[in-house]
């Protein structure tokens, strides 16, 4: 079947651009200077590419470059337009950041004030045959936000810029993990579209499934723009193909009307499933728009065409009152899905740099961590089509926030009209994607209104509730209607119930990081955890690339700039010292904080999964970073995985055995001295898991003290709790014993004492060493074969310290005495490194190295760090 071809002509306008400072504190040497510009792009990256500014991501350069966001900028290009391409001509901008004036050949075409929507301007009367000049002037995003805040009236927010007064990505003004680098520029595609008679203004394929009947249902809504004076009948043709299905349907657009809906049914449809639950079949959809003759038959070639893909599935959100409160369960194809997810932020502060390849790399990492959902957070952007396409292909569910985060928002004009236009644009654009399963009105805004002191500060002003409970759900119902909607996250299900009640709906948990400690994650059993996390530094290679402090310390100037959380370093310290002593050596500090981040989040996720189905999901904050920074991310700003990513891979495994405190009857632990230990067997597969759970209490030298074997049968997508016999679950010597629970080679561990209080053998007290390690070359890299001489906790090979682009397949591996593991290290084909570096004690790390560190003076520490770092670097680059 030949694809539908359209008469519409498209000319991409991405070439020949320049940018110049047009107002504000532009340095004298740049005033009036034309700089080559990349479109899509932004001012910061253009100036950086021209060598006119330092890299904003390095050291304290952020402060040096704040003038960019305080200045006005003008983009300019010329293009040629030939005759005969159509009767009507539109300039189409997929993204302008943000307050812009567009002129063509000296005449104003339009003004914009919203980064989050697309714009189209009729330039038929302005376009010249031959050369045309296009200019886009951007007002300072910082000064515009300030001015609009005054015009709208003060509303509370969590930043040092009033980002809530302007429809621009909130994170772009800085966040507690983000750089303050407010951008301007043409950040998505721009083109000239020429057409005649009529064009497709919007195409919304809404695909659902009648699972019981095995049918796919496609309702494809089309909105048409007619040329002035054209009122005749039109016809819409829809073709669907793939997986043995070939379907064509047509619908008339009667004279004078501008919309139509085409219905298609697909019997024996191939259902689209989340990863881990089935396959992700996608169907091709083609739409053509044609004129008709007097009989109503299509006449001539298509006037316009659209093509895309979709998948058939049903989706719902169960929020049902029960004995524990109110559930929060995402249901796909009538099956509850236990969500193993992460929050997603823009992958670069300069988001135009994020291409499909970079998105694919990040989603590779999400899959490596066994994730099945990403929540697109409301302080960022509505992601590029490539993001959702890739999620469709991989079965990664997407939860889409509307762009509201941690702030009160004016509901008056002109903001209200912008919000509605933005919502309509993005709901229509994202409708085809089967991976999209939830619309969410805002991030923390209803919770914030109740608990962050907003009510007093607002003094009666609007704050956004009407958006979340009226406008946005209305747009979703009108333009989508196939997906659930929640007004905010967290959300208890009702404005009458506290929005962050753990017993009702979704919850955000930040008391642990801010004030308590990570073992207390086990104190609460939420119905769904939509945000929680623990900070850790970026990988060593990223840290030392972006910060040149000498000496480098946790509090050195560059480190402070790259720590955006309020009191962040103090919270890192407070959250560590209950578990291991605070190291004096910088590399040990880096490893300790990386370990603590991974352990904290792994503890939380295993706890949450152990309470399935009462708890139905875990969405960690966050998968990725937008620049090099100490943050909650599992993947740092240079795209390198932290130990946390590997901890998540374990905690998200389809089959998990975890040891958890429980009451003697298997219920919630009382923490009054009468708690028991339980092995919880979690089975997130379609097959039952049955066998004998082997329970053992061991000394640290591997000697058995007590054991038991308990048969277990775990149904598909279920969990079973086995309370340990007292003799297995009660230590004789807490500091020197552990418990293991093993089923079919899957093992859970429980240590009775904190590492700092335990009898772990340390390198200084190990005699011949903690491990034996051998390295052998293999295709694509090396295998590091490690055998434990003593109990070794959380063995981790920090491969990036051997080579910045090296990766290892597993981290945080605990070995009993005599156990062995093979760690596979991949390196680029052109990488040169001495294999011995892979077993260096500052590369091959373990928790044992941290439990009783030697006390050294600051001078000695600096000397040791300098010597070993130089040694590793020399070996890696030899």
TrEMBL record:
Instruction: Please give the catalytic activity noted in the UniProt record.
Output: Hydrolysis of terminal, non-reducing beta-D-mannose residues in beta-D-mannosides
State the InterPro entries in the record.
Answer: Beta-gal/glucu_dom_sf (IPR036156), Beta-mannosidase-like_N2 (IPR054593), Beta-mannosidase_GH2 (IPR050887), Galactose-bd-like_sf (IPR008979), GH (IPR017853), Ig-like_fold (IPR013783)
Which Pfam family is one of this chain's hits? Glyco_hydro_2_N2
Swiss-Prot/TrEMBL keywords: Glycosidase, Hydrolase
Gene3D superfamilies membership: Galactose-binding domain-like, Glycosidases, Immunoglobulins
Source organism of this protein record = Isoptericola luteus
Residue ranges annotated for the Beta-mannosidase-like galactose-binding domain, each copy included: 34-188
PANTHER family recorded? BETA-MANNOSIDASE
What protein am I looking at?
A: beta-mannosidase
**Among its keywords, does the record have Glycosyltransferase?**
no
Top EC class, one word: hydrolase
* The protein's Enzyme Commission number: 3.2.1.25
Q: Name one GO molecular function term.
A: hydrolase activity
